[in-house]
Write a structure and sequence with these properties.
The chain is built from eight helices and no strands. The chain is mainly alpha-helical. About 4% of the residues have low confidence.
């Protein structure tokens, strides 16, 4: 709480003069207790899962099902991704996302998020929207596996055994 008061009163020493941005200041000044962070994480993560499930249920409605699915699925993935910011803070989350081991998965996932919405609304191509949703899922899964030690290696070995 003292850190937050220092930041809000402008008395924090050095953080703005050494080139650190607003994200680091917000990350350091967080006054959320661990329990509150866990609640925020769980609420955001469950909301993301519910959006994805609701979108999948609405996929089968003729006429407008696919665009609604694309939006809800994308919002669900964004909520699930943002939920970890409650645990580690926004700056560390962005650094983790851009780490060498998961930078490609992050880039593919974010590109597919944008392309899903473009395909559903701008290009009005249902097949492409569905393809980008599948690619979103695969990239998000690969991104998530990067946090589990040796998980990617195990998945690659499993697929190589299946082939």
């Amino acid at each position: 709480m003292d850190k937050l008061k220092q930041v809000l009163s402008g008395q924090e020493g050095g953080s703005s003069s050494d080139g650190s941005g607003i994200l680091e200041t917000a990350n350091q000044a967080s006054s959320l207790a661990w329990g509150t962070r866990m609640k925020g994480f769980l609420i955001c993560f469950v909301l993301g899962i519910l959006c994805s499930i609701l979108g999948t249920c609405l996929l089968w409605i003729p006429g407008f099902g696919l665009p609604v699915f694309a939006v809800l699925y994308t919002i669900g993935n964004l909520c699930a991704l943002a939920s970890t910011m409650f645990l580690v803070g926004p700056l560390r989350q962005l650094k983790n996302m851009c780490a060498k081991v998961r930078a490609l998965a992050t880039a593919i996932m974010l590109i597919c998020l944008v392309l899903t919405l473009c395909a559903a609304f701008w290009w009005k191509n249902n097949g492409l929207a569905l393809l980008f949703c599948v690619l979103q899922f695969l990239a998000f899964t690969w991104y998530g596996l990067s946090y589990v030690p040796f998980a990617r290696d195990a998945v690659l070995k499993l697929f190589s055994l299946c082939m």
